[in-house]
Amino acid sequence: MKKLLRKCPICNNSKHKLMFEQKFALIDGVSFLDGYDVVSCKQCGFVYASNIPEQSEFDTYYINANKYEHETEQPDVITGKYEHILQEIIHFNADKTVSIVDIGCARSEILRLLRDRGYSNLTGIDPSINNVEYLKSKGINGIHATIRTLDTSKQYEVVVFLAVLEHIRDIHQTLSTIGAITAPNGMIIVLVPDMTAQASGELPYQEFSREHINYFTEISLSNLMTQYEFLPIFQKKERGELIGFFRKKSKSIHRDNMGEKCIQRYIGKSKKYEDEIYTNLSQFLDVPLIIWGCGTFTQRLLEKMTFKNIVAFVDSAPKYAGKNYKGISIIPPDELKKYKEPVLIATSHRYIESITRTIRNELKLDNEIVKLHIDYSFAYSV
């Protein structure tokens, strides 16, 4: 796989400062990226990942290994996570026939919320055919496409772009396409991780994942959107996320001095936390181990540490079925019954309580469990 240096996605400047080198172990059939450089633009201050593959490699990954198809076992449940965005959409768009599209929608809770409030002209666009078919089964128009294959002949009055922009390598093509499908005076709603926010209960370097390759603050998000004639209406923060509401217009950019400071603080806190984790895990280098979770942290862990006696990996995501790392199988949870002795290292921070219940209550196993995200605390802020 060819990896290329990347110009700043905001100001197109080629000069940057290296802030961090991320490295991953490659797991057969799961990983597609062995690492990248986190850099800050010397001209505008935006922080982003460089030395990464072309956009087509990311598109293939999202089509063939889409974890968002299986994020929940109950996809019909409405969590209310996007209720605050829903209210703003309703505030600005009282007409319930307004055309609304959700790009990179997955199962699109926001479209289902709008449907339940009486909005009828709804479309979801996603690279996963399973997600598209799911939306259609719920009475919502679904289109199977990536940004690169999207038909730009149709325009929408509201474009929803939630938790997608941080994943995009070719931002120029993406926002040019979104500009083309946004109707005159149309609105775009963008949600990205807020790199100025405080995070807790998170493992180190999770924001530098296989998928997150752009790191935004209010300034850098505004700078980016104005380059594509989207004028900020307002921005707000919710639970570690930055939500921006924009309309088409042009505006000059301002240097983002906040982004580099936030990322530098994040790197420092992550290193301190990671060093502590690795120090404590060093006692397990030679003992039989099972590692539960094959995501960002595990791939970084395998690159940084050499465990000599990994018996198996465990992950419940269907995309991992039948895969392996250096000949070591990735098994579903119910196959753990075969392994009653090894220590279990649980690297998933989001589902740790569910994992523990599965091990203790369902599988009736007494293996020692190392719970990284509970045994350690992690927080960063400006």
Protein model, in words:
- The chain is an alpha/beta fold.
- It has a seven-stranded mixed β-sheet with strand order 6-5-4-7-8-12-11, with helices on both faces. A six-stranded mixed β-sheet has the order 15-16-14-13-17-18. Strands 1-2-3-10 form a four-stranded antiparallel β-sheet.
- The chain starts with 15 loop residues before the first strand and ends with a strand.
- The chain folds into two domains: 191 residues, Vaccinia Virus protein VP39 (Rossmann fold, 3-Layer(aba) Sandwich), CATH 3.40.50; 97 residues, 3-Layer(aba) Sandwich (Rossmann fold).
Topology, pairings included?
Layout: E1 16-23, E2 35-41, E3 47-50, H1 55-64, H2 83-92, E4 100-103, H3 109-116, E5 122-126, H4 129-137, E6 141-144, E7 156-162, H5 171-181, E8 182-193, E9 199-200, E10 214-215, H6 218-226, E11 230-238, E12 241-248, H7 257-281, E13 289-292, H8 296-304, E14 310-314, E15 324-325, E16 328-331, E17 343-346, H9 352-362, E18 369-371, H10 372-375, E19 379-380
Parallel strand pairs: 4-5, 4-7, 5-6, 7-8, 13-14, 13-17, 14-16, 17-18
Antiparallel strand pairs: 1-2, 2-3, 3-10, 8-12, 9-19, 11-12, 15-16
